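So, read this over?
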Amino acid sequence: MEVTEVTFEERHHAMEGDCRKVSRILARVGDKWTVLVVMLLREGPRRFNEIKRMVGGISQRMLTLTLKGLERDGMVKRTMFPTIPPRVDYELTDLGRSLSEPVMALGLWAKAHLPEIEAAQSAFDARGKSD
């Protein structure tokens, strides 16, 4: 078996490509709407309007884009039922459920540290007013 040497430039180029791919995924999973939708779907399948009601402040267009993005990334499964009117349910896939674990951990961390964060924000804002 022949061993080929990989140059720094080749490694750097490969890492840049991976970083771009990872950053696109992180942009999706780090989006506030994605986090809220994943948290809701963790409880089980939900209909579009049910999700919209439960996620305060999200527009219909933004919810549609969020769900389509999650479906494209393999985290949400969309099931259409041939009823009148048609019924569509959204649920997490195995991949989506695996995402819900770190999302829940992040939410619990934020809740546990909320007083510290709010105190830091107040202190920062007070310094800014005196500058």
In short: The longest helix spans residues 8-29.
